[in-house]
Amino acid sequence: MNISPYAGKLLPAEMLVDVTKLIADYYDRKPDLRIAEQRVSFGTSGHRGSAFKASFNENHVLAITQAICDYRAQAGITGPLYVGIDTHALSEPAQISAVEVFAANGVEIFLAAGGEFTPTPAISHAILTYNKGRTSGLADGVVITPSHNPPDNGGYKYNPTNGGPADSDVTNWMQARANELLENNLRDIKRMDYHAALKASTTHQHDYISYYVKDLINVVDMNAIRDAGVRMGVDPLGGAGLRYWSAIADFYKIDLHLINQIIDPTFEFMTADWDGKIRMDPSSSYTMQGLLAKRNDYQVAFACDADHDRHGIVTPSVGLLPPNHYLAVAIDYLFQNRPQWGAQTAIGKTVVSSAMIDRVSEKLGRRLHEVPVGFKWFAPGLFDGSLGFGGEESAGASFLRIDGGVWTTDKDGLIPALLAGEIVAKTGRDPGEHYKALADQYGHAAESRVEAPANAAQKKALSKLSPEQITSTELAGEKIESIITNAPGNNAAIGGIKVSSKSGWFAARPSGTEDIYKIYAESFKGKDHLQLLIAEAQTIVDKAIS
Prior knowledge:
Elements (H helix, E strand, L loop, with lengths): L18 H10 L13 E2 L2 E5 L7 H18 L5 E5 L5 H14 L4 E4 L7 H12 L8 E5 L8 E7 L8 H16 L10 H6 L3 E4 L1 H8 L6 H7 L3 E4 L6 H11 L3 E3 L30 H4 L7 E5 L6 E5 L3 E2 L2 H12 L11 E5 L4 H10 L3 E4 L7 H6 L2 E6 L3 E4 L14 H14 L3 H12 L3 E8 L2 H8 L10 E2 L2 E2 L2 E5 L6 E8 L3 E7 L5 E8 L3 H19 L1
Parallel strand pairs: 3-4, 3-5, 4-7, 8-9, 8-10, 13-14, 13-15
Antiparallel strand pairs: 1-2, 2-6, 5-6, 10-11, 11-12, 15-16, 17-23, 18-19, 20-21, 21-22, 22-23
């Protein structure tokens, strides 16, 4: 990994996104469907792209929106559709395009009152709140966001009636339909004037902020935070949750300071990530320099990405916690401090999340539900309460209400952040101190993620590997204990392979966009063992796919 000289620094003005040109390209550039990157493509979090590259523009949004309308019709979804946007420059024009199509199709939609931005979890929360107790006329929703991606990106994702990310059978259908509409020059798309769409009887305003904020008391012990006077800082990173944080502070009378209150689509106030690009990634120390500089001003501080579905936790004791560390701490705390959760309530993790979670789960006597990468795999368990917590190594998580009911089925960056405040309030120690105690008890983990070259054929081979194709019996000096290509929790294919020994593991998955595969690795025997593990992992994988 080549670290940019701009990493962790503010970018000069000439390197910032040209918002005027970006929006012009959104309307003016048309996708060339002969180029794969310019077709609609739903990944794990919807369709993403840049207007500069003709991979996210008006035609894409019109086609995706009509595809959503067509899907709702054939799936019998007749309730309202909740619409949210984040603070990326392309989100507002994309919402305008979407509203024109939704209204023309007679879909009842709820837009944020006053043109406010809306975090992803607020959409999931709204869907679930509306659908509670209903068996028909169910609601669904969309969020127009590329999440933490750079400022020139746009994104569009769909959440069905369970409130979580859509399953691949749904997104594959929408993707195929949207591309069909593009190929037919948009002729089957229904559309009306935006101002007429706003006045349509099916278009409504909705106060997302109040509904979400007032309900937080049922998922995090806000009274404990207030009564303990926990001094907290939050950096919204210019994202959709800015007004939510001020509303939370006011409503619950907690000592919460907004460190950054700027919303600017250039995100000029953000320090660049490792590669010199601006990303609103709260798990990156490079992008979190502003908050890290103030780590000693607060008992705990936190940040969220642009759509507020990811969290980053900063403490005086350690600075920025690696996502895996905080997931382990949150799980350890929650399952000892939520007595209303059932004894059978399980812990959800992805196959590339830390084995520390495995060790904590065993200590707690809780079933571990290990699934492939993608938050959609947690949605059913969070929905029915069989999962108390679902978390990804990329700093995305959600968990149940205090009474064991569903809160959100999509990632929620706000509640893990506020939970850090509850942990300080109830224990007198910050999450960094809690992780040190876990590491002292179960071992200190070293983790890394690296990239290795692979052509298209090799990536395809990796995605379809079987355990039998791995002939090695040892990994970094230890006997291999398991080789899996399907997740233990739900037997779904992980799209690669995971190899584990007593003190370490690696997982390898092909990139969907580049000629590389990614190696995730962790060792409980130190950094030297980790490096040996990574080297052997590449040798093992290369041999299997060549």
